[in-house]
Amino acid sequence: MDLQAPRVVLGMLILGPVWLWPVSATSLERSYYEPPAHFAAVEPDRVVKLQFNLSHQLIRQLPFYFSYTMRGFWDRSGRTKSNPFIDINHHPELQWIFSPRHIFSFEHASNGVDNEPSGPEQRANQSRSVNRFYWQSFWKVPGLSKLWFAPRVDAPIVTKNSTRIHDYIGYASSILEWREDGHVTGYLRYSRGAKGHQFIAQATLDPLGLLDSRHPGNTRLFVEYFNGYGDYLVDFDKKRDVMRVGLRLLQ
Fold first, then answer.
1. Which member of 28, 67, 102, 209 has the greatest number of CB atoms within 10 A?
2. How far out from the chain centre does Cα 77 lie?
3. Measured between alpha carbons, how far is residue 101 from residues 31, 141, 179 in Å?
């Protein structure tokens, strides 16, 4: 079954304004302390990164959550009009937040395709998936009340795909978060594997909050720099060096 057509329709409905406007909506990497947000970011080579997040507590008064993140990469260059998505990645996960500072989670990451030819270049053998457990904790940096250190350790279930992917993106991440009024406004993440690394730097700015700090808006200006591997699953073994600009929409 060809699933690309529904994806194209969905992408056009969500991202239609992005085609006309060079700066679109975007968000930080998802954090437990960050509320769900929807976004897309424009790159210089006219690739749009779309992200959608949601999180739901499964049982009231118990710290178990279901979270879902979708990341789509849409080629705006016009090189192909029938199948413009380079890759669409799905990240459902079950989280146990066993204290305000610790998360244990099981995550499935995949791009939801088979190995038939698909994508802008009609490439075959594009199926990618990984199942992993991870643990993440959050600690205030002494003397800097707004700076948090949030290390994360991944333990993938051993398969050929998962081992290859984590060899490029690493098994542990060092993360720094700068928080303002309950929101992550600055973010640095670095990880290294046997064959590659991943570095992400992100920053946001509330333009309405600058005008009136008593009435902050739900829109953030956004800049992201990505360097390394694993930006999207289908080409996890290809190094990317890219700057993205956009807006972040909070719920």
1. 28
2. 22
3. 12, 13, 15
Token couple for 143 = 């003397």
Is the model's pLDDT at 172 over the cut of 60? yes
The structural domain count of the chain equals 1
* 3-class secondary structure per residue, 35-52: CCEEEEEECCCCEEEEEE
Name the more confident of 201 and 116. Answer: 201
Distance in angstroms (rounded) separating the CA atoms of residues 14 and 7 = 10
CATH number for the domain including 101? 2.40.230.10
In a domain, 20, yes or no: no
Confidence band of 144 (pLDDT split at 50, 70, 90): confident
Q: Could you tell me the pTM of the whole model?
A: 0.77
Q: Is 122 left (phi over 0), alpha (psi -120 to 50) or beta?
A: left
Name the residue among 186, 183, 194 with its Cα closest to residue 224.
Answer: 186
* C-alpha pair distances (Å), 188 with each of 5, 87, 197: 36, 24, 14
Q: What's the burial of 209, exposed, middle or buried (CB within 10 Å: 0-12/13-18/19+)? A: middle
Q: Which residue range(s) make up the domain with 119?
A: 39-249
Report the pLDDT value the prediction gives residue 23, as an integer from 0 to 100.
Answer: 33
Q: What is the DSSP letter of 28?
A: P
pLDDT at position 76 over 80: no
Lowest average pLDDT, out of 33-37, 161-165, 229-233, goes to 33-37
DSSP secondary structure string, 62-75? S-EEEEEEEEEEEE
The three-state secondary structure class of 144 is strand
Q: Once rounded to an integer, what is the mean pLDDT over residues 19-44?
A: 48
Q: State the DSSP string of 192-208.
A: E-SS-EEEEEEEEE-HH
